[in-house]
């Protein structure tokens, strides 16, 4: 009864600790809702937002996290940024012929139609007919004409008859390279003109004279290099102009002069580097301006002069570096500003001061280093703000939705946000340090007949010991920054200490896996090909190990000196200084990281798995003693080999899979990064000493001998036995085997093969044994059990 009562007491105690210590201290895996606070009034602290129908304040990071903290669920309302939806709806508009296959054709109401065209009501569809000229005759009352997919080349005024009722003209991918002056002059009621995907290189003056009714002009995906100053004269009622993915290198201050009613201008994916002052000053009705994916180095208030009604400004993927005070002028109607994927380094305190209606701001994928803490404080209407790094959300605590609200590792208060991680990092670091230090010391003091194998193991332990130093660096800084991490985040991630920690982790992991590969190859060749190997020496072993250390050190150090390719955040892109780049898979140096962690490590892991499986099969097929002894031995071998392969699997396979998925575009759960850093990556460093040394019978026997000698008052007990360390480095060759070389003490024998099957009573007394086969001795000597 007593053991049961004791067990129940321990369970209750554990439950109490989990409920009162872990949950009260923060979050276990960032899932605690302790930041949901009841308030006596609707006045919440900065960074908290009141529920709609209750006096509860919810912390910013718990807004829109798919978990209802408010009784009415109001913390999960308005989580979709409609400004993004509008952008993509405009960017990917439906083609004019999108639903034509589903359309039921109506009876033709046109008097005369060309034989090469299909008629429906008052529409003519002549697409993809191989036409080289405009088909004739064209009925004057046609309202829609589609000539896409033909080969028309040059078209001019004389090519068309008087189509005064035509409203939609589609000339997409029609091979048109030249447009004559006033080419569409006969289309007095034309409202939609599609000319995407042709080979136009210039839009000449007067091209659209006489088309005052035109509302939407599509000229995207043409190699247009020049827009003449009067190219758009005659389009005074134009509402939408699409010049996407062209080659426009410059515009003048009067290029868009005639477009006084233009509401949407798309100039993304061109070759613009600079824009003149007042480039858009005559577009007084403009609401949407897209200048994304150009090479613009500066866009300021002078450039955007006169855009009083502008609501949406897209500047994605340009070369902006600095946002100065009042950088965007007086855009008093602006609701959405997208600055993603630039090279913005500095944001001054008054950069957005005049954007009082701004609702959505995107600053993701920039090299932000210097942001004044008050630069967003004047944006009282801001509801959505986006960064690449969560710590910038501390500068926008008044914004309801800030993404990302965490990197899965750190929070505003702690480097390691989860209490479980904070405790585990010390435990794993301690186990790795004690285990690996014990291996190095014990193998240096205790005699081992297989010097080369012991040399390999000591180097493996040294590599794994570096991982524990890395963990201690992270754990120590977590303690130092406790409660105020966000104040130190930028300086910490760009410090030499973080870089050094990242180098330690990379050096440790790569050296460890390379040395494990060498150990596996040594065992594999000794067991699978025992009689075909020549003698190896310590010089050869030293060369292999030195090469591994040099390779690992090169992998770790190269990112520090090649800042042009790797940038200055290869190691410092997260609080634990790991270069796995899971949350931002295409950041600088991602190809190098991919080759190392997915390429090199996959090859090494694959070889280790193959080698141990092959070794087990080879041993299982050999004839070593009686059947019962053989079965017991197989179980022992399988258990040890399974542990070795399983730890490698646990460490590297998840990392390889996660990084591959991230590169493939799969969104990875942000909190996974911390568990990779504290558990997956160091798991081998903590378990290798156990698998390769501390659980082997040789180590336990020699440890027992030391303890026995100490208890016996210093009287040493020695086994008078001959010993020959046979492994890959000392196996016989040319098919010869010496009887003397196959003798060993019974204490060593016990660690691999059952006494009952291989050792007679006489052999126990004489402390000598004759092995049943040279193969059995090689298996024993190479630490396979």
Features:
alpha/beta, disordered N terminus, signal, transmembrane helix, membrane, 785 residues, transmembrane, 17 helices, receptor, 14-stranded mixed sheet, disordered C terminus
Averaged pLDDT: 78
Taking all Cα atoms into account, the compactness measure Rg is 37 Å
Described by the principal axes of the CA atoms, the overall outline is elongated
**Class per helix and strand makeup:** alpha/beta
**How would you write the strand order of the largest sheet?**
4-5-6-8-10-12-14-15-16-17-19-21-23-24
Q: What is the β-strand count?
A: 24
User: How many H/I helical runs?
Assistant: 17
> What portion of residues belong to β-strands?
5-15%
Residue runs with pLDDT of under 50 for 5 or more positions: 1-41, 714-785
The major pleated sheet works out as: 14 strands, mixed
Distance, first to last CA: 40 Å
Summarize the amount of helix as a percent range: 25-40%
Secondary structure topology:
Elements: H1 2-25, E1 36-38, E2 48-50, E3 56-59, H2 82-91, E4 118-120, E5 123-125, E6 144-146, E7 154-155, E8 168-170, E9 178-179, E10 192-194, E11 202-203, E12 216-218, E13 226-227, E14 240-242, E15 264-266, E16 288-290, E17 312-314, E18 322-323, E19 336-338, E20 346-347, E21 360-362, E22 370-371, E23 384-386, E24 401-403, H3 419-445, H4 451-480, H5 485-493, H6 496-528, H7 538-561, H8 563-566, H9 590-621, H10 627-663, H11 672-680, H12 683-694, H13 697-711, H14 746-749, H15 755-758, H16 761-766, H17 774-781
Helix pairs in contact: 3-4, 3-11, 3-12, 4-6, 4-7, 4-12, 6-7, 6-9, 9-10, 10-12
């Amino acid at each position: 009864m007593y053991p049961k009562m004791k067990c129940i007491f321990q369970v209750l105690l554990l439950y109490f600790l989990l409920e009162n210590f872990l949950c009260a201290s923060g979050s276990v895996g960032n899932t605690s809702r302790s930041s949901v606070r009841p308030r006596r009034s609707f006045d919440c602290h900065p960074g908290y937002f009141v529920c709609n129908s209750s006096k509860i304040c919810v912390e910013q990071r718990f807004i829109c996290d798919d978990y209802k903290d408010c009784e009415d669920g109001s913390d999960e309302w308005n989580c979709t940024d409609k400004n993004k939806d509008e952008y993509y709806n405009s960017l990917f508009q439906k083609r004019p012929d999108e639903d034509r296959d589903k359309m039921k054709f109506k009876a033709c109401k046109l008097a005369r139609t060309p034989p090469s065209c299909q008629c429906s009501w008052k529409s003519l569809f002549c697409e993809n007919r191989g036409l080289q000229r405009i088909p004739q005759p064209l009925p004057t009352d046609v309202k829609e004409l589609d000539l896409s997919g033909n080969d028309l080349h040059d078209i001019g005024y004389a090519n068309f008859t008087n189509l005064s009722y035509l409203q939609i003209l589609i000339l997409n991918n029609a091979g048109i390279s030249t447009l004559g002056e006033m080419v569409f002059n006969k289309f007095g009621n034309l409202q939609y003109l599609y000319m995407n995907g042709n080979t136009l290189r210039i839009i000449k003056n007067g091209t659209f004279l006489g088309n005052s009714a035109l509302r939407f002009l599509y000229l995207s995906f043409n190699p247009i290099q020049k827009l003449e100053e009067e190219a758009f004269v005659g389009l005074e009622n134009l509402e939408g102009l699409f010049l996407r993915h062209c080659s426009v290198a410059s515009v003048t201050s009067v290029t868009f002069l005639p477009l006084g009613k233009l509401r949407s201008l798309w100039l993304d994916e061109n070759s613009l580097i600079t824009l003149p002052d007042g480039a858009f000053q005559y577009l007084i009705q403009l609401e949407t301006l897209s200048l994304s994916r150009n090479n613009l180095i500066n866009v300021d208030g002078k450039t955007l002069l006169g855009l009083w009604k502008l609501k949406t400004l897209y500047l994605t993927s340009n070369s902006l570096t600095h946002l100065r005070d009042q950088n965007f002028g007086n855009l008093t109607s602006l609701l959405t500003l997208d600055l993603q994927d630039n090279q913005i380094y500095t944001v001054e305190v008054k950069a957005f001061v005049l954007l009082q209606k701004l609702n959505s701001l995107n600053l993701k994928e920039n090299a932000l280093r210097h942001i004044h803490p008050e630069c967003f404080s004047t944006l009282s209407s801001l509801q959505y703000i986006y960064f690449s790094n969560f710590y910038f959300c501390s500068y926008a605590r008044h914004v309801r939705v800030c993404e990302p609200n965490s990197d899965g590792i750190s929070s505003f208060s702690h480097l390691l946000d989860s209490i479980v991680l904070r405790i585990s990092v010390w435990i794993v670091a301690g186990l790795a340090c004690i285990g690996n230090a014990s291996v190095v010391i014990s193998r240096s003091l205790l005699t081992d007949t297989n010097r080369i194998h012991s040399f390999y193991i000591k180097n493996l332990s040294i590599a794994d010991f570096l991982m524990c130093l890395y963990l201690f660096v992270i754990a120590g800084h977590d303690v130092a920054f406790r409660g105020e991490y966000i104040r130190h985040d930028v300086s910490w991630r760009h410090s030499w200490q973080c870089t050094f920690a990242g180098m330690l982790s990379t050096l440790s992991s790569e050296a460890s896996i390379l040395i494990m590969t060498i150990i596996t190859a040594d065992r594999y060749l000794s067991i699978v090909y025992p009689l075909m190997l020549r003698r190896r020496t310590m010089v050869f072993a030293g060369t292999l190990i030195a090469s591994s250390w040099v390779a690992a050190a090169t992998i770790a150090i190269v990112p520090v000196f090649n800042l042009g390719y790797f940038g200055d955040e290869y190691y410092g892109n997260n609080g634990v200084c790991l270069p796995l780049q899971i949350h931002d898979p295409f950041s600088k140096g991602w190809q190098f990281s991919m080759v190392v962690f997915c390429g090199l490590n996959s090859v090494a892991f694959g070889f280790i798995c193959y080698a141990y499986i092959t070794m087990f099969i080879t041993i299982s097929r050999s004839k070593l003693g009686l059947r019962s002894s053989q079965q017991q031995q197989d179980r022992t071998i399988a258990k040890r080999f399974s542990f070795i392969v399983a730890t490698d699997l646990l460490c590297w396979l998840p990392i390889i899979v996660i990084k591959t998925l991230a590169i493939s575009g799969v969104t990875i759960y942000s909190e996974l990064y911390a568990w990779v850093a504290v558990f997956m990556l160091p798991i081998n460093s903590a378990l290798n000493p156990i698998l390769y040394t501390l659980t082997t019978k040789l180590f336990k026997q020699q440890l027992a001998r030391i303890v026995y000698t100490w208890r016996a008052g210093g009287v040493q007990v020695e086994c008078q036995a001959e010993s020959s360390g046979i492994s890959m480095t000392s196996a016989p060759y040319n098919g010869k085997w010496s009887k003397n070389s196959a003798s060993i003490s019974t204490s060593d024998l016990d660690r691999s093969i059952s006494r009952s099957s291989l050792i007679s009573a006489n052999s126990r007394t004489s402390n000598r044994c004759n092995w049943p086969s040279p193969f059995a001795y090689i298996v024993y000597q190479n630490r396979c059990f």
